[in-house]
Hints:
By secondary structure, the protein is an alpha/beta fold. The protein is built from twelve helices and 16 strands.
Amino acid sequence: xxxxxxxxxxxxxxxxxxxxxxxxxxxxxxxxxxxxxxxxxxxxxxxxxxxxxxxxxxxxxxxxxxxxxxxxxxxxxxxxxxxxxxxxxxxxxxxxxxxxxxxxxxxxxxxxxxxxxxxxxxxxxxxxxxxxxxxxxxxxxxxxxxxxxxxxxxxxxxxxxxxxxxxxxxxxxxxxxxxxxxxxxxxxxxxxxxxxxxxxxxxxxxxxxxxxxxxxxxxxxxxxxxxxxxxxxxxxxxxxxxxxxxxxxxxxxxxxxxxxxxxxxxxxxxxxxxxxxxxxxxxxxxxxxxxxxxxxxxxxxxxxxxxxxxxxxxxxxxxxxxxxxxxxxxxxxxxxxxxxxxxxxxxxxxxxxxxxxxxxxxxxxxxxxxxxxxxxxxxxxxxxxxxxxxxxxxxxxxxxxxxxxxxxxxxxxxxxxxxxxxxxxx
Length: 426
């Protein structure tokens, strides 16, 4: 008979770790205002400007829509050298919806229940913790994280160590024993780890789709840059994704993936005015940022970033909130999705910026036509407007919103996650 992961966790926390329950709360740790706003600017080269019909004709391009959701809550605390240290439990779900016969249908879902704790820091603070290793499989710098998620077993992750390896081939230190008294920092590291693991799971499900349906297009909620950062941690086959160590592997992964970023934090230093024009036909400026920026919507030189005033027709009905660019969405298009020539498979990442600009300026080029096809399809997805918050109504695409609603409905409630301390289950 299969054992509920919560039952294993309950036994570990109550019998082994000596943990105590925390006061009840109905607020997940990660909840925060959804305020899409420009928080930083970066040098970027404008590569092209494309005028797109606001109501383009043609069939839909994207077959799959991928998103991820999570709920992370503090479920217990332990006493170490008179310091109360919180332990967190995270429920992570990623999934893909499929468009078939003009309907959206659930296609694939993966989920993980992960205990988040600063395990190495606890061992240093109290040697007794060396014999209190959590149950289940560790999600750490050794990688194979998506394989562990697919196993369906209880998982844990040590928030005192980085997932990525340093130049010495070892994980870095995030929390030391002396940091355990900094409760806010311990909690922040748990939330950051949950976000990292969710990104890794999204990359994993993208990889599954790319293998099963290599010619079908996928629209991802969020930036496309993370695969270039976390590939090794997902699966050994994706190790070549990191920093484009293997251009051929990156080419195969990215050539049918596009990202829709609704929380635009990074904007170019100039030129966005054209995207905010009130002309009848929207004009989309396409930029290439010169560096990877370590933020939630990271950008990189391997991505072409198009900015679109998604629903300017609603500007008079829904006032722009917090900033003049709160109605802008960013569409991340990997260079292989546009320059999809097998002859470039091993060297696409070395394309000269002038060559890219010239090809995109040539209306008859295959690259220009592919870019127009992608952006027309994005504009087609503007309607209907999702039933969501005011800010999301301005910048979120309906299929992505529906995917998120489907996944969110499967999240365990805060009270279910805290039921690890329900003695009636013992």
